[in-house]
Amino acid sequence: MEDSGSGQEEKMQHMYRGLRMNQMGIRTELLLSFVEKKTWEHALLHCSQEHTTLTSLVSETEDLQALRKIQHDDITERVWIGLRFLGDRWLWVDGDPLVYENWAEGGEEDYQCPRMKRCGALTKGGQWENWDCEDSLHFICY
User: Fold this and answer.
1) What is the pLDDT of residue 8?
2) Which of 57, 55, 61, 19 is closest to 138 using CA atoms?
3) Residues 71, 124: contact at Cβ < 8 Å?
4) Which CATH number does 7-141 carry?
5) How much is the pTM?
6) Contact 93, 55 (CB under 8 A)
7) Alpha-carbon distance 142 to 139, whole Å?
8) Dihedral of the CA atoms 46, 96, 62, 142 (nearest 10)?
9) CA 93/CA 117 separation, integer angstroms
10) 69-102 burial by CB neighbour count: b if 16+ within 10 A, else e?
11) What's the pLDDT at 25?
12) 47, 78, 126 from 9: Cα distances, Å
């Protein structure tokens, strides 16, 4: 179930901004929305209506930039990113190639062939995890 957050959270209206390059070399802003938590699908819809899409993390630099922005107490332990398992592989929803990967080591390794957890999340520890798409988490748009 989607959680719209408390009135106090809604008043905070926190957005953190950074810069990233898309595959065409155009600078885009990396935005973190932690005012509201959403399912992966609702986060994708929100991003497409307000910005462009959920962010892709195509390099260690972008991964570290996003990680710095989620290190706040009022942000969920993991946040949605634009990674989705479709068919037989993980894809970035914006079309960026999946050349850089940062999956959590030693945890559940079902990301290679997930049955239920088919959406990608970035943890505050800096790794990616496959997660249940129906969970409500904060998310990163750009």
Assistant:
1) 37
2) 55
3) yes
4) 3.10.100.10
5) 0.78
6) no
7) 10
8) -20
9) 16
10) bbeeeebbebbbbbbbbeeeebbbbbebeeeeeb
11) 54
12) 19, 18, 25
Q: Token pair for residue 61?
A: 């630099």
Angle at 134 between CA 89 and CA 20, to 5 degrees: 60
Tokens 């991964």: give the residue.
Answer: 63
The two tokens of residue 64 are 């570290």
DSSP string for residues in the chain:
--B---HHHHHH--EEEEEEE-TTS-EEEEEEEEEEEE-HHHHHHHHHHHSS-B----SHHHHHHHHHHT-STTS-SEEEEEEEEETTEEEETT--------BPSSS--GGGS-SS--EEEEETTS-EEEE-TTS-EEEEE-
- Residues 80 and 123: beta-carbon distance below 8 Å: no
In the structure encoding, which two tokens stand for residue 58, read together? 């195509």
Could you report the per-residue pLDDT of 117-142, keeping only the tens digit for each?
899 999 999 999 999 999 999 999 87
**Separation of alpha carbons 80 and 43, rounded Å:** 8
